[in-house]
Amino acid sequence: MRWLRASGLAALARAALPLLLLAALWEAAVALLHISPFYLPPLRQVLGAMLALWPAYQEAFLVTLGEAVVGFLAGALVGIASACAFHHARWLRDMLFPLFVASQTVPVIAFGAIVVLWFGNTLLAKAAIAFYLTFFPVTVNALAGIEAVDPRQVALLRSFGASRRDIWWKLLLPSALPRIFTALRLSAGLALAGAIVGEWFGASIGVGAMLLAALFNEQVVAMWAAILAAAGVGGTIFAAVALLEGRLVFWRDEL
Amino acid sequence: MSRATWRGLAGGLVLLALWEGVVRGLGIAPWILPPPSGILATTWTVRGALLDAGAMTLFEATAGYGIGAVLGIALAMLLALATPLRKLVLPMVVAVNSVPVAAYAPLALLWFGTGALSKIIMVAFIVGFTVFLNTLDGLLRVDPAAVALLRSFGAGRLGVLWRLRVPSALPAMLVGLRVSTVRSMIVAIVTEMLGSQKGLGWTIFEAVLQIDFLRVWAAILVASLISLGFFAAVGALERRVVFWR
Question: What range does the domain containing B228 cover?
């Protein structure tokens, strides 16, 4: 277990180093290049603003995180289930896959108003938008992962009397997992974008609502603080996905 | 036409028929979900305004797309050549990119005003990131043995870049360019919704305020058709350039 903890610390350091570098660069650039606070206020000032209103930022963080995570999980489940269905029923795939593709050219943001009309100003409305952005990349990657399985492996398992269910749980899903996680890492950001934009249609709490309020009041410091809060939400989901990936796809390093 | 195409068409028609049937059968109010026939009728009635708005949004999207694509590819090539710079810059690019681009839209509006410029810059930003990350991935993912071979024949870094890395990165780069088409339209519309006097995003925003949901759906339809056309155009270009795929 010690190597695990050590590698965990190393991973943490690797993740923190660019952030510290970016923070230092931010402070140095503002001071040395005399950047107007209208464009980029000093990082100290932004962090100060966040600390001054910490409970509000904490609440916004949790609300937006909840919306994004619910939509993200639903999108991941539907994506994997669709890939499974498409793999087993060619006709279903031919019928629905073009619709899935077309659905992604629809500017979902435009749906924001309609979704809020349907679900009211609830968590569900934002989660629905996050879901819409998430399910497609997962479907595509899961399907690609399943299709990449060597048919001879399937035949071998079947010759040993494995049922469809065994083949799915013991061969197809594990083989597709690395690709599914690639999609999940990408979708973490998309789900957050969906939650933030969903909050623009009348929500009063959340990172997206904070961004909008800062825009209306033309407060650049508050805007950067909200951007940092958004980065926090995105980073949290991303880290959770990466952690789960490390646990589930434990053989990846051996490939 | 192939069997898959027929099935795809059938799927679309079934969806439309279901939609129309459910809305009519259950008597759903148009402001909750209008039937497809109603959306088409409204689109036709306000086609002049929608075309004007669509042209504006398409202009912003394509202008930003062009700028972003050039900058993204140029930066990727620069960083493929300069390894130390890459190790420094790449994590920061990823950190900036970890925040959804929509979160930067208020800043762009505040800095560059509510005209077309703020939308073009936002689109260039998202397209630049997408193309940059895809291209760099392609440029770096070459067979080390092929690099060694070229070097042994006396090729310099530039020679390896031009003769080996760029051709083998083309597919990844084009995937980035294709994905960016739809994103460019979405980002242009999002930024328009937050602040502008023209374009599809503004049309949608205004229609929402007037509780004219048929016009919202009509604008969504036009936006989707333009995105689809843009996507198909870049896809066709891709098939001509990467002919060996």
Answer: 47-241
